[in-house]
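Exercise 7b. Backbone tokens:
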């Protein structure tokens, strides 16, 4: 029986396969897929500017069919002109890069959703012949990011469904032929509520796609570890065990605050904790660093990252002996940690966490390197050490987003805990544990007090987390080993649930239902 064909249309397919153009894309923008093709709904082609940050660079829907579902479906790629000429239907993928303000902010032509679609493709969309898929499943963003909590962490960005409906109407696109793939687990419920509130009769298709869950589970199906092997390691290496694991590659301010809290409560020595301060973050000390672009050009290849490199490691080692430089770094972070900026450390019991004395005490302990001594790889999906999970009893996880009450997003950080039979306490958005349970995972109550998960106020939720960290780190190693062993049923259940494809298959089924309707109706 022949495979069902999934047709993908690319505005720049023929253009990108001209030899001279292709060589420049490979050289300057090697992360573009499929096959080094300049992306849909993108702006002009600055092929000679390797610092240019492509508006729409990353997507998951194509590799899903090309890699994960290749035994069931046949992928076809053509220039959109070819499909239009033969009057065929196809899927038009708009990938995204950075926050929504970049690709649908509407402040200029570059950031206006649908504006840069080629005119012949727009006409085909208006005829109902194209399924338009906006894929931002790499990261979750709140549909409504206008609340102060979201803006503290993500900056201002447009209301996503208002923008999508408005732009579809302006372009005369059939809204029912548009799909948004999002990694935010709150989005489908919120969109349903928004449509009812605004009496929307024709809806776009908002589909949850938890790409991180699928990517991690499929890549590490044969890791060869079990709960029993993790428990045995902990028992056999009892004296060398650390209490918890806490990794911080990027210095987002709410993460820095919690590292400072670990220092303030004297918990750093109890854990395997990573932190290397990048000069990128010290604007006053290093004003001339190029901060105009970030890592994105080539997978696994540093371009211009805000993450620490080899020279930063040495800078951290020298920091303790350079009092003038140390004091300037402390003052800069004191300013960054003001409560009106980060919204944390607001109570009389926690304001000392942000004090210059505690910041300096923490900086004097840098660098903290536990996971690698290499700085030329930025792929946290694949380049990590399983032994970190064996050597600790649980993880204190800093999720990608933690402040907004309108989103729940799970990155590889939480899923690596599940893969490695590790209980975890997340500094993450409220309702993070609630939505795990909705996805058939078990969480860790009563072994961990998870009342923090219901607290919308970020400062109060942070206090709850730290109280639980202090409590668990107060256990001796015998208690911790028993505590860990008692959660075996939970950890095994979560691993098995994680390795199933139920949620992924539902997402793909929902997408295919819309695709087939467009193909069959046209």
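Sequence design result:
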């Amino acid at each position: 029986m022949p495979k069902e064909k999934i047709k993908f249309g690319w505005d720049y397919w023929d253009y990108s396969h001209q030899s001279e153009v292709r060589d420049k894309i490979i050289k300057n923008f090697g992360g573009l897929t499929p096959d080094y093709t300049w992306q849909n709904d993108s702006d002009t082609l600055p092929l000679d500017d390797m610092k240019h940050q492509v508006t729409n660079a990353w997507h998951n829907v194509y590799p899903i069919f090309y890699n994960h579902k290749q035994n069931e479906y046949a992928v076809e790629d053509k220039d959109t002109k070819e499909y239009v000429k033969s009057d065929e239907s196809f899927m038009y993928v708009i990938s995204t890069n950075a926050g929504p303000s970049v690709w649908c902010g509407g402040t200029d032509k570059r950031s206006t959703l649908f504006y840069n679609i080629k005119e012949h493709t727009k006409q085909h969309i208006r005829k109902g012949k194209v399924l338009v898929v906006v894929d931002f499943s790499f990261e979750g963003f709140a549909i409504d990011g206008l609340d102060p909590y979201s803006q503290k962490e993500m900056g201002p960005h447009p209301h996503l469904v208002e923008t999508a409906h408005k732009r579809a109407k302006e372009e005369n696109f059939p809204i029912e032929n548009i799909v948004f793939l999002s990694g935010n687990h709150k989005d489908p419920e919120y969109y349903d509520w928004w449509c009812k509130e605004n009496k929307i009769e024709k809806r776009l298709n908002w589909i949850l796609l938890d790409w991180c869950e699928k990517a991690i589970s499929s890549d590490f199906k044969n890791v060869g570890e079990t709960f029993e092997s993790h428990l045995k390691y902990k028992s056999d290496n009892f004296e060398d065990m650390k209490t918890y694991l806490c990794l911080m590659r990027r210095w987002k301010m709410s993460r820095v605050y919690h590292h400072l809290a670990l220092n303030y409560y004297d918990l750093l020595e109890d854990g395997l904790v990573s932190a290397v301060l990048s000069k990128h973050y010290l604007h006053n000390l290093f004003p001339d660093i190029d901060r105009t672009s970030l890592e994105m050009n080539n997978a696994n290849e540093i371009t211009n990252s805000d993450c620490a490199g080899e020279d930063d490691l040495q800078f951290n080692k020298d920091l303790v002996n350079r009092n003038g430089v140390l004091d300037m770094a402390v003052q800069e972070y004191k300013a960054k940690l003001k409560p009106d900026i980060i919204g944390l450390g607001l109570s009389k019991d926690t304001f000392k966490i942000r004090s210059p004395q505690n910041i300096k005490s923490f900086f004097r302990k840098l660098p903290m390197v536990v996971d690698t001594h290499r700085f030329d790889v930025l792929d946290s999906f694949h380049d990590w050490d399983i032994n970190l999970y064996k050597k600790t009893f649980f993880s204190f996880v800093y999720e990608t987003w933690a402040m907004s009450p309108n989103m729940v997003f799970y990155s590889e950080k939480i899923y690596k805990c599940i893969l490695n039979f590790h209980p975890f306490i997340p500094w993450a958005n409220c309702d993070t544990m609630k939505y795990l349970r909705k996805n058939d995972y078990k969480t860790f109550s009563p072994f961990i007090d998870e009342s923090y998960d219901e607290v919308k106020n970020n400062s109060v939720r942070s206090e709850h987390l730290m109280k639980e960290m202090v409590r668990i780190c107060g256990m001796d190693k015998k208690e911790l080993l028993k505590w860990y062993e008692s959660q075996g049923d939970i950890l095994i259940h979560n691993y098995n649930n994680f390795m199933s494809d139920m949620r992924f298959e539902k997402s793909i089924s929902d997408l295919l239902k819309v695709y087939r309707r467009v193909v069959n109706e046209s």
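Instructor comment: The CA atoms of residues 212 and 319 lie 36 Å apart. The chain has a mean pLDDT of 90.
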